[in-house]
Design brief:
345 residues, 13 helices, 0% strand, single chain
Length: 345
């Protein structure tokens, strides 16, 4: 009977829905709703059938098996069966087949996802192993960097770049967990202090003469020369700091020597005459060169070796003085005005 076919199709539909993965139910929501409505119709039909069957039995009992009641009941049952069209049943069967196909696809996709999950787990394990290896490598590299930094700090301060010193100082805390950290931290701090002193002193030698600044620098150098605790230096570093102090101590004497040269030029009668007449610049320049010459044994040569060669500011001032006079021997120079302004004891 058609009713039995409907019941079978409905049962197959429900089985497929039960077999689908939980996370796939959403995609069949419409079909499930339709099947639920169909099941409700079938239930009502079944209930009607039972009711009719009961009535038929009652009628047969009451009428003694009259054929007319039976015929009416059978006609009613046939009408119920015919109300469910073959096309509707075919649609249900097609939906069931489609659900079976989707269930197969879901199973295949689940298998694919399981494989991908296993692959990801394997890759994560490999990455973790690589990270562990990198951690070991990083630790060993840091230990070597720490030793390299200590070796660099042993060099004379003129050979330590300010940028490198700043980089070492800024990364001290990265070595907190290594043996010898406390000693390393103290040595880096001392080196940074000493390097700054050296750079400040070097800058002062290249700048205008400044008595207070020079005295302050020499006060900072004094503990190193006296080798006080915390100011110990290796031989190369001590030699460099000692040389820096010597140069700073000679700055004032060098200014005095350069002033003497300038005054000798300005007080020369022959040069003064040429300048007064504003004529014969070549002859005037020849007279000036006698006071600037660095011939062996001359006072200028001695001043150059002792002062101008060691102190960049004075060396540059001497060269500027020479160059300006060579171009304009009949006039005083701008650099000599600057040099003569300094008050020397």
């Amino acid at each position: 009977m058609r009713l039995n076919r409907i019941l079978a199709a409905t049962a197959a539909t429900l089985l497929c829905l039960a077999a689908a993965p939980a996370w796939g139910q959403g995609s069949y929501e419409k079909l499930v709703k339709e099947n639920a409505e169909l099941q409700e119709q079938i239930t009502r039909m079944a209930e009607d059938t039972l009711a009719l069957t009961g009535k038929i039995a009652e009628a047969e009992a009451a009428a003694g098996g009259q054929g007319e009641a039976t015929a009416k009941a059978e006609a009613r049952l046939k009408s119920i069966e015919d109300s469910v069209s073959p096309g509707f049943i075919a649609k249900i069967e097609a939906d069931v087949a489609e659900l079976e196909k989707k269930a197969e696809k879901l199973t295949a996709k689940t298998d694919s996802l399981d494989k991908a999950k296993r692959d990801i787990g394997s890759r994560l394990a490999n990455v973790k192993g690589e990270i562990d290896e990198m951690d070991v490598y990083s630790t060993e590299k840091k230990k070597q960097t720490m030793q390299d930094n200590l070796e660099l700090l042993k060099k004379p301060y003129s050979q330590i770049a300010a940028k490198a010193m700043a980089a070492i100082s800024s990364t001290v805390d990265e070595y907190r967990d290594f043996d010898g950290y406390d000693d390393y931290r103290k040595r880096v701090a001392a080196a940074a202090r000493n390097k700054q002193l050296y750079d400040d002193g070097t800058a002062a030698l290249a700048s205008k003469f400044d008595v207070p600044a020079i005295n302050a620098l020499r006060d900072r150098i004094d503990p190193f020369l006296k080798k006080k605790k915390g100011y110990e230096l290796n031989a190369g570093q001590f030699k460099e700091i000692d040389s820096l102090d010597i140069k700073l101590s000679r700055f004032e004497g060098g200014v005095a020597e350069l002033q003497k040269i300038i005054n000798n030029v300005n007080n020369d009668k022959e040069i003064s005459q040429w300048r007064e007449t504003k004529q014969n610049g070549d002859a005037c320049w020849e007279a000036i060169k006698k006071h600037l010459s660095r011939e062996s044994g001359s006072s200028v040569a001695k001043a150059y070796e002792r002062y101008f060669k060691l102190i960049p500011y004075l060396g540059n001032a001497y060269r500027k003085y020479w160059n300006e006079l060579s171009k304009h021997p009949l006039a005083k120079t701008r650099i000599e005005e600057e040099i003569l302004e300094y008050k020397i004891k």
